[in-house]
Specification:
371 residues, Helix Hairpins, Chaperone, DNAj Protein, Chain A, 4 domains, elongated
């Protein structure tokens, strides 16, 4: 017969491991090798049982002390002899998610709901109150959420004794599972309510007022406590989360607390300069365009952006100038531009320094290739 592995090695822990780390190590090992996750794998099943045996000994201070002193001989015949209820509780805490189990007999909270609220940029920046209509499940008033006909009450489940879980023996240990008869509630309804048919809740649409604070952005959520679905059997309701979606704006683009705006200008205004009226969220302002302004030039109005919903100074409003080439020229315009081009070519690089330096760079690059 093969000798048993050291219990500490089985769980991958040091000999001075504390209880919390021991439980974490057992969780990792047992979850990896649990038979439900490895059906038909005999090796995983053996490792799962080995880990369970190691944890059952090392989690008991008296057994651990004897094991540290005498090894396996000190706990011979005692592994698996602990109270079934104690071990099952530990196992149930760790593997409740596998079986979908939960402690019965309690008043479970209802499900949370999510609602998508679409806003314009101005509404998001300034804040707004909106009414929304939410379909949900609310507590049945006929039975006050119990699910039982008025004048009667749910009775204790005969299968689980009201605890909401049943034990299934697997070798030397037992596994807790959700009671299939009461589905973990610990109670059964013998005479269901005719209005909700025993569910304890009914479908209903409600109109709620949502106060949206100033400065919200897409992805922000507003929590309305207790406005979610009603809890089963009269349990507390869940919460409603209103998720904000801000529509694209035809003029401004948002970047955190800053706003961006592209302003098309004629090449004449860019060359000679001008004063333009430009938009802000609160009206129009005058913007001075200096002569000889190049396309892509940024102008910043400090503090004209958005005040963040979580606090902090307001952002800025940034204007980017885009020089627009004229289209559908008249014959007179074309004549003037041809004359302008002749004059500009005479001036050379003095009036178009970037253009000249770019062509000089291209020339050097081509010559380097010829080598």
């Amino acid at each position: 017969m093969a000798s048993k592995r050291d219990y500490y090695d089985v769980l991958g822990v040091s000999r001075d491991v504390d209880t919390a780390e021991l439980k974490k190590a057992y969780r990792r090992t047992a979850m990896k090798h649990h038979p439900d996750r490895n059906p038909g794998d005999k090796e995983s099943e053996a490792k799962f049982k080995e880990a369970s045996e190691a944890f059952e000994v090392l989690s008991d201070q008296q057994k651990r002390s004897r094991y540290d002193q005498f090894g396996h001989a000190g706990v011979e015949g005692q592994a698996g002899a602990a109270g079934a209820a104690d071990f099952a509780d530990i196992f149930g805490d760790i593997f409740g998610d596998i079986f979908g189990g939960r402690r019965g007999g309690g008043r479970h909270q209802g499900a949370d709901l999510q609602y998508h609220l679409e806003l314009g940029l101005e509404e998001a920046v300034q804040g707004v109150s909106r009414n929304i209509r939410v379909p949900t499940r609310v507590r049945c008033t006929a039975c006050d959420g119990s699910g039982a006909r008025r004048g009667t009450e749910p009775v204790t489940c005969t299968a689980c004794g009201g605890v909401g879980q049943v034990r299934m023996q697997q070798g030397f240990f037992s596994v807790q599972q959700t009671c299939p008869r009461c589905r973990g509630e610990g109670k059964q309804i013998k005479d269901p309510c005719s209005t909700c048919r025993g569910a304890g809740a009914v479908e209903e649409s409600r109109t709620l007022s949502v106060k949206v604070p100033a400065g919200v952005d897409s992805g922000d959520r507003i929590r309305l406590s207790g406005e979610g679905q009603a809890g089963p059997r009269g349990g507390p309701s869940g919460d409603l989360y209103v998720r904000i979606e801000v529509r694209p704006h035809p003029v401004f683009e948002r970047d955190g607390a800053d706003l961006h705006c592209d302003i098309p200008i004629s090449f004449v205004d860019a060359a000679l300069g001008n004063h333009l009226e430009v938009p802000t969220l609160s009206g129009r302002v005058k913007l001075k365009i200096p002569a000889e302004t190049q396309t892509g030039k940024l102008f910043r109005l400090r503090g004209k952006g958005i005040t963040p919903v979580r606090g902090g100074p307001p952002g800025d409003l940034l204007y980017r100038l885009v020089v627009e080439t004229p289209v559908k020229l008249t014959s007179r315009q074309r004549e003037l531009l041809e004359e302008f081009r002749e004059i500009q070519e005479e001036q050379g690089s003095r009036q178009s320094p970037k253009r000249q330096s770019w062509f000089d760079g291209v020339k050097r690059f081509v010559e380097s290739l010829r080598g």
